[in-house]
Amino acid sequence: MKVGELFHWTSRKLSEKVEAALKTVLLIDAVNWSDAYAPDHPLRNVGQWFKRHFTDVSDIDVQVARPDDGPLHFNPENFDGLILSGSPRDAWDRQDPVNDQLIEVAALCRDKNLPFLGVCYGHQILARALGGVVERHPDGLELGTVAVRLTDAGRKCPVFDELPSSFDVMEGHVDYVTGLPDGCHHLISGDHTPMQGIGYNGFMFGVQFHPEMNPEILRYLWTARLETWRERVTFDLDERLKSFRPADSSAKVLLNFLKFVSSF
User: Fold this and answer.
1) Full set of structural domains in the chain with CATH
2) Catalytic annotation on 73?
3) Mean pLDDT across the stretch 175-196?
4) Which of 12, 37, 209, 263 has the greatest number of beta carbons closer than 10 A?
């Protein structure tokens, strides 16, 4: 074999090793957009909300799918981990076929031992897949930048590695998981919503908050909802939107999850 041929053969083999080591995380974008959000707005991009945190991750390929993309996208042979995004859908609604579909996906990850991270709505869907209950929160909407606390179990959880015992997060939800599903650990607590984070069997995780968001994204989402929601809350909604503060440390949850998938 000539030197040039040897070089190309070696390069190809190294490339094949890199590709073989690359793992895939499927991000399910579960958001259903209303006509109030222009399709061409740069912030109307759920995949980018998450992917902007992954620019330095080289060993994980994050692919984005929608619930209506078809069953082949959710074949566990095609990915090594799954993230289920937030959504304005009601996870408790038993008449919504998308809820049923995503509960099945979460259950499939459970049965196949595939790492799973549910965010807000995704956290609630995970809870339902594990036999838990999701309802409207009796105290209504939790919105803005709030502090949450790791439990003793949460401090030992790899998804919250290097996070302090208390840290700020961005919230935007009116539904909640009413109690700890069987077989789960309570990982994060909060004042308004006690069940801010859960874990199951060391490879499935749910967080009620939004580690992917920043004030700009959350404000974009809620500005279009102001007229509908002003009379439904007990606080000044306009002032609340102005008060959003960054909660950058919470994005560590996403990076830790990818690191967990990489080593799983």
Assistant:
1) 23-263 (3.40.50.880)
2) no
3) 97
4) 209
